[in-house]
Amino acid sequence: DRQDLDLRRFLWINGSRFDLLDGQKPFVGTTPMPPGHGFYPQGLTRDQIEHYLKDHPDKRAEIYSPTTVVRWHGTDLEGLPYHIAYRSFLEKAADDLRAAAEVSPDAAFANYLRLRADALLSDDYFKSDIAWMQLKDPKVDLIFAPYETYDDTLLGVKATYGASVLVRDQAESAKLATFRKYVADIQDSLPSPAQDRPSKRGLETPMEVMDAPFRTGDLGHGYQAVADNLPNDPKIHELKGSKKLFFKNFMDARVNYVILPLARYMMPESQAAMASADGYLLGTIMHEICHGLGPAFAHDASGEKVDIRAAMGPIFGGLEEAKADVVGMFALKWLVDHGVLPKQKLNGYYASYLAGNFRTLRFGAAEAHGQAEMMEFNYYVEQGAVRRDASGKYSVDFEKMPDAIAGLAKELLAMEATGDRARAEAWFTKYDVISPELQKSLDKAKSLPVDVDPLFAFPRKVE
Questions:
Q1: What are the b/e assignments for 390-410, b being 16+ CB within 10 Å?
Q2: How far apart are CA 68 and CA 225, in angstroms?
Q3: Which residue, among 42, 25, 17, 76, has the nearest Cα to 154 in the 3D structure?
Q4: Helices (H) and strands (E) in the chain, counts
Q5: What architecture is the 95-168 domain classified under in CATH?
Q6: Going by C-beta distance under 8 Å and a sequence separation of 6 or more, which residues neighbour residue 330?
Q7: Whole-structure pTM value
Q8: Which of 79, 240, 322, 383 is most deeply packed, by most CB within 10 A?
Q9: Which comes out higher in pLDDT, residue 22 or 108?
């Protein structure tokens, strides 16, 4: 019946019985989402893991590996590699990648497909990531790897598989060359000590505008990404940089069906009219560029390099998304100040940023992007850079916004550089609160969709 069809669709949207865009609340049953999802034994806590690792320090690498499933083996914890745990699925996928390589007219892309097939069966993605970074303007591209760690809210390190077929938009991709050549200069301009912003000169920064005719796995459920900055391996970032991908068909849908209609509910008419698809696109471009900027590693008290993701734990997802947002807007003003972008459009960029912020606030703080933008919004309100009028609509104070962005960028970059988890957790606890006034304003837009639900021409099945 209709209810069963709606439930089936909602299960497809979320990939589970938990609403990923509403605080991960269960919509079937009442048992809450376990913080470790399926990555860890049910009921295992972070404190228990850390206590175990104090007695078994030799186990830390396998327990904290992004590509192991943690299980009890008697009284011991062990990390079972993904390529063993999921071998029956991965062997089929690897066979398909090798078959695709045989018919690809692009030798470099075929080589990448073969290396990625090998990686799926070994969990060593380094060579295939390097090959992926070295592709030169591929007409067709593919994401297929366990990259993102948003779903692990226990340790914040376990990656989930996501996949997407991509087709290059040559005309739009060519426009990105302007931004590519300023990446190193933007890194040098960041409000942080020189040792915390390693030079990006000489590193590759491939950027591609793509249409995504199919996506699945982590990329297919819940929040629908309009861009990505990959791979996430800091060793790749130091050696090669990162690839910025912009999914044009998803971005067009987000702007037209969600952001611009929402702006008309949440902002005064004069500022809602300033929000634009172009402004949102530029903010997204700088967001993805700035995922790759700032510190590559944290430094502990002894000065040793520490992986930021591991140092921060579950708060990393929200922190990193906030850093990319805020540093991205800092960078956008840098481009305006240096004549790369027209000065008269800066206020429109800020209005587009706020309009996009409202979309993400509706996700709640259980989702990394929602967590990030809730914090950003409340900080800007505190600084007087965003104001609410008597009608319940919000506007940007264009005089105060630049300094508010610079101050927040400095704070977020410092958190990552020091790996200070307690500082970051306290900061987000303070600012990740939705006020009754904001909720009242958001409730007026309940008739608008929270996100898009893509329908593909390819069949999807569950095995």
A1: eeebbbbeeeebbebbbbbbb
A2: 25
A3: 42
A4: 22, 13
A5: 2-Layer Sandwich (3.30)
A6: 190, 191, 405, 406, 409
A7: 0.86
A8: 322
A9: 108
CA pair distance 31, 10, nearest whole angstrom: 17
Q: Do the Cβ atoms of 192 and 414 come closer than 8 Å?
A: yes
Question: Taking a C-beta distance cutoff of 8 angstroms, is the pair 251, 445 a contact?
Answer: no
Question: What's CA 100's distance to the chain center, in Å?
Answer: 28
The tens digit of pLDDT for each residue in 27-77 reads 999 999 999 999 999 999 999 999 999 999 999 999 999 999 999 999 999
What residue type is 177 in one-letter code? Answer: A
> Residues 6 or more apart from 17 whose CB is under 8 A from it?
11, 26, 27, 28, 29
Residues of the chain with CATH 3.30.540.30: 95-168
Tokens (6 digits) for 409: 């960028």
Cβ-contact 349, 357 below 8 angstroms? no
Nearest to 196 by CA among 366, 67, 327, 284: 327
